[in-house]
User: What shape does this take?
Amino acid sequence: MFRIFTSKLRRDFREQRKDLPDIYVDTMFYNEDRPLSAIVVNAANKPGVLAEITRTISEKDINILKVNVLDIPKGDRGFILLLLENCDKKCVEEVVESLKSNAVLKDRLFSINYSTAENGFVFLKYNNVLFDDSISFILLHQLLESAIYEVIKDNLMGASLFLTSFGRGIGRAIYDRFIKDIEELPGNTIDEKVSIALDLFCNLYKAMGLGEMSIEEKGTGQYLVSIKNNFECMALKKYGAGKGYPARTGFITRGIIAGFYEKLFNRVVEVYEEACVLEGRDADVFTVRIRESIFSRY
Assistant: This one.
């Protein structure tokens, strides 16, 4: 059920917000300097099953770092993941034996798989990673950082055109997947529908791990888009400006914004990068200008 890599992890520490949790995709786990055990239970979809499992573990004075139902249960059963802190191989074997011998859980546990590692990675063997019920993949920040840098460093002009077009495709696909038709959005007026669509765009951008976006209307057909922790410019931040490219390198981001706005308003859209974190700014800033009246479509 699991594969374990015991290689030492190079930790990249970053500031964490205290009021909001990080989102963990349940495919890989790491615990430094302490053993970490993972249990995946295929259990009956019945009231009280999860409570009895956690009670059995807590009676052994073992702390549960994370508990999660891995998927919405199908029919009469589902998968439950539990991560146990400071629990080595002997510890997790004792936990599994206690669960199997629990009279309350008899005939309610169909299978139990487990693994443990210390200073290593624990991988769950998944068929697919899903985002919004769509098959997805994970691209680590370090991988993206290297990829963007390699594309840009040798041919800035060609890279900017390629990356902007790449981003435009993503922006248009976001609209097609999540908006589809602005007329179907709630709201009594076009202004209200547009506001809802742009708010959804900001939330989707963050949910996909791309950055914290905010949008401000600056007049008819003009918008100011600010993005904190923008994935693209943050990827190049460690290189700094003067590495063969200018300080403003939000090419993919510019394309994403343009593609979404083009689909939303059905108009030609111009997007300009006004500021970048590589210049020492707190956020990346883009202006959006719609060439034609945004209301002539309706």
Remarks:
- The first helix runs from residue 49 to 58.
- The CA atoms of residues 49 and 105 lie 7 Å apart.
- The chain has two domains: 2-136, 144-290.
